[in-house]
Amino acid sequence: MKIVKAGIADLDTIRRIVRDTIRAVYPRYYPKGAVDFFLAHHSDENIIKDITAGNVCILLNEEGQPAGTVTTAENELNRLFVLPEYQGHGYGGELIRFAENVIFEKYDRVVLSASLPAKKIYLKREYSCTEYNMTECPNGDFLCYDEMIKLRDN
What region holds the N-acetyltransferase domain (predicted)? Predict the structure, then answer.
């Protein structure tokens, strides 16, 4: 597997990874309004902004096919998604390790907002919950998530 920096030409790939993963996984954890809110949050405009800033990477599997994506911005780990067909093969862990290494080069902590499906993964990687949040969606549903932190080992 290989992790490469995304360019504007990769927008369709990033969009597909994000949307396919949200649509396949998130309805098991959240009501429809929260899923729709989450999809809108990861809009093309937001993805393009992050790509332009040089913050988005794509994980390519052993055959060179896109399997996942991660975004880092300062000390924040964002938009980590692995396509459902590639989950359970270590790609998510590889993306987390990659993002942590990028962040720990300049900062002493990684912060992130963990969705319900991702929280367990971060807890296994020694992240701690710092705050629980509920965002009300336009239709009255709620998107619940945890703010989490991991400190660099000294």
Answer: 1-153
pLDDT in tens, 30-56: 999 999 999 999 999 999 999 999 999
Q: Which domain holds residue 75?
A: 2-107
**HEC string of 80-92?**
EEECHHHCCCCHH
Q: How many helices (H) and strands (E) does the chain have?
A: 5, 7
User: What is the average pLDDT score of the chain?
Assistant: 96
What's the confidence (pLDDT) of residue 154?
A: 57
Read off the CATH number of the domain in which 97 is found. Answer: 3.40.630.30
**148, two tokens:** 């989490």
Q: What is the spatial distance between Cα 40 and Cα 72, in angstroms, rounded to a whole number?
A: 19
Please tell me the total count of domains within the chain.
1
